[in-house]
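Chain A, query sequence.
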Amino acid sequence: MNKRAVFHLVAYMTLVIGVAMIFCAGISFLYHEPLSDQLSLIYSGVIAMSFAVVVGLCTRGEINLSRRDGFGIVTFGWIFATLFGSLPYLFSGVIAHPVSAMFETMSGFTTTGASVLSNLEEIPRGIHFWRALTHWFGGMGVLVLCVAILPFLGVGGMQIYRAEMPGPSKDRLTPRIATTAKLLWGVYALLTLVEAVLLKFAGGMDWFDSFCHAFGTMATGGFSTRSASVGAYDSAMIDWIITAFMFLAGVNFSLHYYALTGKPHRYFKDPEFRFYAIFLLCTTLFFTFDIWINDWGTFTRCFRDSAFTATSIMTTTGFGTADFNEWPNASRLLLVMMMFIGGCAGSTAGGMKVVRVFIMFKKMLRELKQFMRPSAVIQMKLGGKPVEQEIVSHISAFFAIFVFIFAIGSFVMTFFTPDLVTASTSVVATLGNIGPGLNAVGITQNFAGIPPLGQAFLTLLMLLGRLELYTVLILFLPSFWKK
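Chain A, predicted structure.
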C-alpha cells in the first residue's frame, strides 16, 4: 500500500470535515447560541484543518492509486473522519465519554442513525446541524465528494469510488469517474433541496428542521432534531413527504439521473427496482392489516404508519412515527427480515442490498432445478441478461460473511445487553446501518444504556456495514500490507 498517497488524500478529506465544522459554527452564530457552543465547533474545525495541512504538506508527491490503495484510503478516511468528527460533541459537553462520541459520529457518517443522545430538543442547533451534516456527507460518501471536487483525483478516483460506493456493481454514468461523482452528488443535492422545501411548506417545520430531516432522509440516516423523531410533528403531510423521499433514497441513484435526463422508463426496466417496489408495497399492506386487526387505530392511520415504517426500515433510514416495538410478533419479525435486506445497490441505503437477495433467491431456485435435473445447464439471468458465475460466487461469500459476523456479533453483545432480542437486533441495526432495533434499543429508546466497550464494538460493525465488509476486512490480511 502506498502509505504516502493514502494519507495525503485522507488529509484532503479531513480538510473538508474541518471546513464543514466551521460552517456549523456559523449556523450556531446565526441562532445566537452561547459563545461556548460556537467555539466548540470552531476549535474542532481548526484542529481538523491543522492536521490536514500538516499531513498534506508532509505527504506531497505524485498520486497514482492502486485498488489496494483505494481500500486503505476509504477505511482510514472514515476512521479519521470519525475521530475528528467526535470533537464537537466532546468540546460542547453534549457527550461526555469519548467512545460514545465516536459511536454517535460513526453512526452519523455511516448513516446508521443509532444514537446515545436523549432530550434532543436541548442540544445546540450548531451541534444538531453538524450531526445532520455527518449523515449527508456519509450518504453519498465524503471521499466520493472529494473525487468530484478535486480534479487531480481523476487518475485514482475509480479506486476510491469502487471502495466507498455501496452495492456489488458500481455504475459509471460517464467515462470519467470524476464526472460520474459530480453527477451523482448533483442528483443527491437536488433531491435534498426539493425535500427540504416541501417539508418547510408542509407546515410544522422551520428551515432548520426541514434541512436536518432532508439530510437524514436522503442519506437514509434517521437523525432527527426531536426525541420522538418524525412522530413528534404528528403531520400526515410530513409523513408522506418523508416516506416518498425515503423510497427515492433507497433506489439506485443512477436511475434518478436517467429519469432527470428524460429516461424515466429505466426505473421499470430495472429488475432490482421492481423487486424493491413490489416488496415494499406487499410488506406495507401486511403491516397495515396486521396492526389494524389488532386495534392499533383507524385503517387510514395504520396504512400511513405502516408505509412510513416499512420504507424507513427497508431503506435503513430509521425515522419513526410509531413504536413498532409494540406491534404484533409477525410484523416485528418481518421488520427484522427487512433490516437484513436493505435498499438497492447504488443507493444510500444499507443492508445486504436488494440485488444480492434477489440473486441469492434465483440461485436457490436454480439449485433446486439442478438437483432434479443434474445434467441440465441452467443459466441464471437478471433482467434478461446472464449473471456471471463470478458475481454469484462473490455474493454467496458476502452472504456467508454477513451472517457469520451477525452471529458472532450477537454472541458478543449478549454480554452488554439485557436480553437476546436486544443483543441480536442491536447487531443487525448497526451492521445493516438501520439505527433502531427492538426492545432496549427500540425506536423509542437509544444505545446509551450499552457500556462503552459494547458501543465500541457496535461502532466497528457500523463501519463494516457501510463499507460492505470487504473494504475493512482485507486490512486484517497480512498480505494486504506486503509490497
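The mean pLDDT is 87. The two ends are 7 Å apart (CA to CA).
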